[in-house]
C-alpha cells in the first residue's frame, strides 16, 4: 500500500515533481510513499512528509477510493494540513520542484497517470467542484 498526501493550504493543493526514477522524472504527483510494516496509513503519511518535504503535518481525512499502482501496490490518499511552525515544504527526496496549485492551475502540470483519478477525487472532496477531463 502507498499513501499519498493531498496537502491543502489557502485553497491550493501541493504537487511534487519527481526527479527519480528516470521513467517517472519530470512528472507530478501527490507526495507520499510506501507504508512500512506495522505502520498505519496516517503514520506513514506523517513520516513521508517529514522525509520528502521536511515538514510536520497531520492527516485530516481519507479520500474515498483506492487507485492501482504497479502491482502489488495501491494508492490511498489523505488530506493533510501543515502544522504551525513547520516551515515551508522543500523537495528533499525523489523530487526536484514543488508547486502550490489553485483549482484553475491544477491541470497545468503533467501528473503521473496513476495520480490523475486520485487528484480528481481530491478536487471533488476538498473543493466540491467538478473537474475537467485531464
From TrEMBL:
Required co-factor?
Mg(2+)
One Pfam family, short name please? Answer: NUDIX
Q: Which family does it belong to?
A: Belongs to the Nudix hydrolase family.
Q: Please report the name of this protein according to its UniProt entry.
A: 8-oxo-dGTP diphosphatase
Query: Recorded E.C. number(s)?
Result: 3.6.1.55
Q: Give me the segments passing through the membrane.
A: none
Keywords linked to the UniProt accession: DNA damage, DNA repair, DNA replication, Hydrolase, Magnesium, Metal-binding, Mutator protein
Record domain Nudix hydrolase: where = 1-125
Please list the GO biological process terms of this entry: DNA repair; DNA replication
Single GO MF descriptor:
8-oxo-7,8-dihydroguanosine triphosphate pyrophosphatase activity
Q: Which reaction does it catalyse?
A: 8-oxo-dGTP + H2O = 8-oxo-dGMP + diphosphate + H(+)
